[in-house]
Amino acid sequence: MKKKHVKGKGIFITFEGPECAGKTTQIGLLKDFLVPMGRTVVTTREPGGTEIGEKIRQIVKHLTGRDAVVDEAEILLFAASRAQHVKTFIMPALAQGAIVISDRYADSTTAYQGYARGIDMDFVERLNSFATIGLRPDITFVLDLPPEEIEKRASKRQETLFVEDRIESEKIEFHRKVRMAFLEIARREPDRVVVIPALQRIEEIRDQVREAVRNAFEGL
């Protein structure tokens, strides 16, 4: 069933999935699709989206070695970035009627810190609810990618950018847990989450995203 879209009301779309699945590319293509419809579209990312969030991003993704964050600090830093992001960026944009498209949101904390790191899921759910002030996406796309492909793409990207990504560099078993977590989230919430295989051509993924958005909302 399509969600009735009220003119002037914002829409919140998130993209999830493992590292190197092509989320950034698809977010740009979806924005290009929506803007000609006369809608204000803003894109953002997590961790990040605000000055505070971008500083946290550098810490949790790129600070390695002896001073790298421990699991307990990692989840709290992600939550802090999200709380700032929701209250100062996402909610104001939605209130002005914009379509907000975010590269990652609370599902990533559930998958990475909950399922893959093994942090208590009840705590993860409470923390997510607190950090998001209860704000949930209208639709979420999970770009699904096998762990073996993640390793190949991550290695190539880090060689190109000359920047080590702490989370991309996790062992394959970690990424396998993350993948299964996203698929479990999709299984539990089929009305919100759309899974799209990310081994397809960019254009094929683009078309499936557009079709899902058209099918999900009236008035677009």
Characterise the protein shown here:
It is globular, with a radius of gyration of 17 Å. The longest helix is centred in the middle third of the chain and has 25 residues. The model has no long low-confidence stretch (mean pLDDT 92). It has one domain: P-loop containing nucleotide triphosphate hydrolases (Rossmann fold, 3-Layer(aba) Sandwich). Strands 2-3-1-4-5 form a five-stranded parallel β-sheet, sandwiched between helices. It is α/β, with parallel strands linked by helices. It contains eight helices and five strands. Helix 1 crosses helix 8, helix 2 runs antiparallel to helix 3 and helix 3 runs parallel beside helix 5.
Main features:
single chain; 220 residues; alpha/beta; Rossmann fold; five-stranded parallel beta sheet; 12% strand
Quick summary of this structure?
This protein is α/β, with parallel strands linked by helices and 220 residues long. The chain has eight helices and five strands; from the N terminus they run βαβααβααβααβα.
